[in-house]
Amino acid sequence: MLTAAESTILDLRVGDVVEIRGQAEILATLDEHGALDSLPFMPEMLRYCGQRLTVDKVAHKTCDTLTGSGMRRMANAVHLTGARCDGSAHGGCQAACLIYWKHAWLRKVDPAEAPDRSSPPAASVSPQAPDPSRLLPLLTATTQRPPAEDGSEVYRCQATELLRAAPEQLPLRHLGQFVEDVRTGNAGVFWTLRTVFVATYNRMQGIGKRVLPPRLQPRGGRQWGFLRGTADKTPTVQTNLQPGDTVRIRSKDEVAQTLNAELLNRGMGFDAEMARFCGRTARVARRVDHIVDERTGRMIRMRNPCIVLEGVICEGAFNLSCPRSITPYWREAWLEKIDPDEPPHRAERAEPAIGTAGAAG
């Protein structure tokens, strides 16, 4: 028997316009945990009901940030442009994750349809539809798990349930994932070829570190991007950056001086995806001091807030074109406040060119 998700499959591609279904229709797709195929429909998503948004990425896969198992297969889901979780039902979490939308929660809009149509489809007002007033209480009740032993709140959201919603690993050898990236418009051909090359290189480096003595390991066994932390004790820098401030992301060499051998600065990582932005300028979007730990569901409160920059997201260039568009967290030590009227600074070349550096498609 088909699940609700499998019975509603839309041929969606990047740029398609969809309408989020009404609350009654969505309620009909959810189980007693407020989820569809283990993916929660969260209270933060209710405000989008009835709205029309554009497909930003097709979420046919997702990276595992909980256990580091690699890429996972996701069925019948997309990310929509600008639809990020505001954390209002999860203790004010500031992670701003890009929301997953199952096909069953969406209606594809015909390009020929009048652009000002805003009323819900007829199915949403069917007398057989569930009572939509039940949806919010269900979602609210399922945002939390039983409290931890110390009494602290434990949250449940799409990020904490990711491995349940995407239980199947997607190894590098499954080349169909890259065909799907190109077919759906998630990435262009040259971008995709580069991600495969980088993933293969990193895989070989991992094998080399296990079987070769250090003197025979290419580039010291380092992953693509070739970052190397040089700090024995990572520094703490506080510059009191505020939303709207203009900053320049420091060079790779400068950042390396703040990282230990594991590429961490007081527990916060800096990776090759972030190094691609070294030398660029951006504005501070917000300061982040508390987020839900997706591994445990507990709220993490940071001693020193980190920074999120406007328009700076992980593009999956070195991570198999992962479509999650996670917003990187920046230590203030990695940023230099500048005059917004200062002429743009040309970014350092953070990577060798392979095909093209742009995300086509």
Helix count, per DSSP?
A: 8
The share of residues in extended strands comes to 15-25%
Low-pLDDT runs of 5+ residues are 1-6, 116-127, 349-361
Oligomer: single chain
Largest sheet: 5 strands, antiparallel
In helices, the fraction of residues equals 10-25%
The largest sheet has its strands arranged as 8-7-4-1-9
Structural topology:
Layout lengths: L3 H4 L9 E4 L2 H5 L7 E2 L2 E2 L11 E7 L2 E3 L7 E3 L3 E4 L20 E2 L3 E3 L26 H7 L2 E2 L8 E2 L6 H4 L2 E2 L6 H9 L4 H23 L34 E4 L2 H5 L7 E2 L2 E2 L2 H4 L5 E12 L6 E11 L25 E3 L24
Antiparallel strand pairs: 1-4, 1-9, 2-3, 4-7, 5-6, 6-12, 7-8, 10-11, 13-16, 13-18, 14-15, 16-17
Q: What can you see in these coordinates?
A:
The protein has 361 residues and is α+β, with helices and mostly antiparallel strands. It has two domains: 4-169, no CATH class; 190-337, no CATH class. It is 17% helix and 19% strand. The protein contains eight helices and 18 strands. The strands form six sheets. A five-stranded antiparallel sheet has the order 8-7-4-1-9, with no helix packed on it. A four-stranded antiparallel sheet has the order 17-16-13-18, with no helix packed on it. The longest helix has 23 residues, at 189-211.
Short description:
The protein has 361 residues and is α+β, with helices and mostly antiparallel strands. 17% of the residues lie in helices and 19% in strands.
